[in-house]
């Protein structure tokens, strides 16, 4: 029998797998926030005159194609990968959820027009849209954050609207509307508390999608630009040395995999129970 951590007061029950996944996520979050202060070398310093140098006491993961410390660059890359992805997913989910609940509560022409516009945007392949926009506008941190948020807002909108439409038909919403409550009250006090659990799970999934898309754009040379680098950029820079300097490529791949898999496992093992107000 697997052990689990229960917090009945908050409606949480976390398994050992969920605890392990949350520790990995907290580790990378901590690395992104304070890691660069403790990196052995500055990310741009050339510390090895032998490019693709081996693992040593001074270079824990070897050096890259210019002789820079891979370990230090992975630490700095966490700030870009985690930071950009987190900012984008928060922007996308806040916009999408707010628009979805508003469309469900207001209905009518507002719901129809907003849904058609976002459906049209959602029909464009995400990677193709990202490539075209970055090639047209140029790549920078603010552009990447806004672009990734725009790409994933329609999906968040559709998910939140589907939940809100079902919640909008419940008796407690009908009663609140009958007693004269306004739309903002219905959204904030009646609909949102009853869809917050699935919305948080959806936020975690979209965070994974954004990490993978950002890494893909960086691997194609359209993400974070030199001298800065996220984990996808590190793979692109050192892919030529895979046959004789594997850590330079494998280490950032492991970082991406550990973060995305941990977020998925945490979502699967952290059900958030929202009290059914209709009962």
Automatic annotation (TrEMBL):
It is a multi-pass membrane protein. Residues 78-267 form the ABC transmembrane type-1 domain. It is found in: Cell membrane. Keywords: Cell membrane, Membrane, Transmembrane, Transmembrane helix, Transport. Its main location: membrane. InterPro entries: BP-dependent_transpt_permease, MetI-like, MetI-like_sf. SUPFAM superfamilies: MetI-like. The chain crosses the membrane at residues 12-34, 80-108, 128-152, 203-224, 244-267. PANTHER family: OLIGOPEPTIDE TRANSPORT SYSTEM PERMEASE PROTEIN APPC (PTHR43386), PEPTIDE ABC TRANSPORTER PERMEASE PROTEIN (PTHR43386:SF25). Belongs to the binding-protein-dependent transport system permease family. This is ABC transporter permease. It comes from Roseibium litorale. The lineage of its organism: Bacteria, Pseudomonadati, Pseudomonadota, Alphaproteobacteria, Hyphomicrobiales.
């Amino acid at each position: 029998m697997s052990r689990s951590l229960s917090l009945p007061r908050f409606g949480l029950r976390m398994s050992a797998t969920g605890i392990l996944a949350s520790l990995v996520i907290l580790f990378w979050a901590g690395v992104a926030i304070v890691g660069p202060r403790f990196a052995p070398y500055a990310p741009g310093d050339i510390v090895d005159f032998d490019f693709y140098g081996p693992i040593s006491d001074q270079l824990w993961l070897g050096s890259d194609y210019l002789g820079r410390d891979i370990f230090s660059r992975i630490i700095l890359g966490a700030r870009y990968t985690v930071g950009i992805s987190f900012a984008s997913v928060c922007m996308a989910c806040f916009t999408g959820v707010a628009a979805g609940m508003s469309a469900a509560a207001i209905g009518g022409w507002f719901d129809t027009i907003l849904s058609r516009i976002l459906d049209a945007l959602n029909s464009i392949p995400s990677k193709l849209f990202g490539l075209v926009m970055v090639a047209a506008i140029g790549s920078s941190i603010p552009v990447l954050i806004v672009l990734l948020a725009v790409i994933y807002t329609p999906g968040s909108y559709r998910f939140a609207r589907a939940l809100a439409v079902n919640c909008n038909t419940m008796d407690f919403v009908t009663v609140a509307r009958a007693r004269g409550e306004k739309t903002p009250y219905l959204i904030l006090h009646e609909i949102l508390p009853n869809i917050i659990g699935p919305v948080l799970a959806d936020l975690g999934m979209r965070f994974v999608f954004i990490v993978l898309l950002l890494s893909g754009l960086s691997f194609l040379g359209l993400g974070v630009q030199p001298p800065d680098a996220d984990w996808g950029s590190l793979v692109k820079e050192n892919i030529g040395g895979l046959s004789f300097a594997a850590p330079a490529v494998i280490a950032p791949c492991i970082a991406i995999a550990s973060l995305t898999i941990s977020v998925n496992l945490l979502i699967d093992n952290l059900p958030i129970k929202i009290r059914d107000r209709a009962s």
